[in-house]
């Protein structure tokens, strides 16, 4: 599966199948993720559960596995009593686990936004009141650890805000690992309200960024975002939306019809998507359907 030209070459020959929601698979297996570290808690408490979840997506046909480091940080692990050396080892272990689950596949090291570490929902709002320089200082140390662990690509994902994107792009400079930049969006704007054309433009001239796109959004928001991303940057596009269901706090339940990425994938690929998967509430069954669809597209 892995090409000699590396991840960028594989994208050019794509489309590639991304995995689905890691937290969804963990919750389906009975693991309690009600924690400030979310799925990253299991890096310390139950790494085998993460390995099992990764393998479920690999069996479903995912060619790229995203690590369990989305909500992991030195600050978050420190609140659990872990020193920097222990925290760094847990961050690196997220890459090792994904690689072990699928040795011949691709591993994307997840780097969530600053708001994810706050665990208060601000990752869906952005505009934290921090400068670009302050956000860069936050992101750089964990990026250094993740890059040194040997992933194929850094997944700068669920980014809500143009300022944070700028900070993350500065923070990856010189690490020697390609990256994708993926925004969380509402319509054709970032969660913080900036136009997507402006948001994607910050990555247009970055040689280290091999793909741009969206994730953790409604499926219907993906099509317009793909077209904007491709037009503004000329880069391959990455998309992995949620199922389309909506969380209802009053009843503490998901409502609405689930829509996996498979039925819409052909249109996204036609418009420039080269990396397609799922995010929240998208499990292995939906990824298996997607893998079959993308295999058929590649055969045409």
From TrEMBL:
InterPro entries: BHMT-like, HCY_dom, HCY_dom_sf, Hcy_S-methyltransferase. Zn(2+) binds at residues 216, 279-280. Its cofactor is Zn(2+). Keywords: Metal-binding, Methyltransferase, Transferase, Zinc. The keyword Repeat does not apply. SUPFAM superfamilies: Homocysteine S-methyltransferase (SSF82282). Transmembrane segments: none annotated. The keyword Nucleus does not apply. Residues 4-294 form the Hcy-binding domain. NCBIfam families: PRK09485.1 (NF007020). This is Homocysteine S-methyltransferase. The lineage of its organism: Bacteria, Bacillati, Actinomycetota, Actinomycetes, Kitasatosporales.
């Amino acid at each position: 599966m892995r090409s000699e030209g590396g991840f960028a070459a594989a994208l050019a020959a794509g489309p590639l199948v991304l995995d689905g929601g890691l937290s969804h698979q963990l919750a389906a297996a009975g693991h309690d993720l009600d924690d400030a570290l979310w799925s990253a808690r299991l890096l310390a408490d139950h790494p085998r559960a993460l390995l099992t979840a990764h393998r479920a997506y690999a069996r479903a046909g995912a060619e790229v596995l995203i690590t369990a480091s989305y909500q992991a940080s030195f600050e978050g692990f420190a609140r659990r009593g872990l020193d920097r050396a222990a925290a760094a080892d847990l961050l690196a272990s997220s890459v090792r686990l994904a690689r072990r689950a699928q040795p011949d596949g691709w591993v994307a090291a997840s780097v969530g936004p600053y708001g994810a570490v706050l665990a208060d929902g601000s990752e869906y709002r952005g505009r934290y009141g921090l400068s670009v320089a302050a956000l860069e200082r936050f992101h750089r140390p964990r990026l250094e650890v993740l890059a040194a662990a040997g992933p194929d690509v850094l997944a700068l994902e669920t980014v809500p805000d143009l300022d944070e994107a700028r900070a993350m792009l500065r923070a990856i400079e010189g690490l020697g690992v390609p990256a994708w930049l993926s925004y969380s969006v509402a319509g054709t704007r970032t969660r913080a309200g900036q136009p997507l054309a402006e948001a994607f433009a910050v990555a247009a001239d970055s040689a280290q960024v091999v793909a741009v796109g969206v994730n953790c959004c409604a499926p219907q928001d993906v099509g317009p975002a793909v077209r904007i991303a491709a037009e503004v940057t000329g880069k391959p596009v990455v998309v992995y939306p949620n199922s389309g269901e909506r969380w209802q706090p009053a009843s503490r339940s998901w409502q609405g019809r689930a829509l996996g990425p498979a039925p819409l994938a052909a249109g996204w690929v036609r418009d420039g998507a080269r990396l397609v998967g799922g995010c929240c509430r998208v499990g292995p069954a939906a990824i298996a359907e997607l893998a079959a669809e993308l295999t058929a597209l590649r055969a045409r």
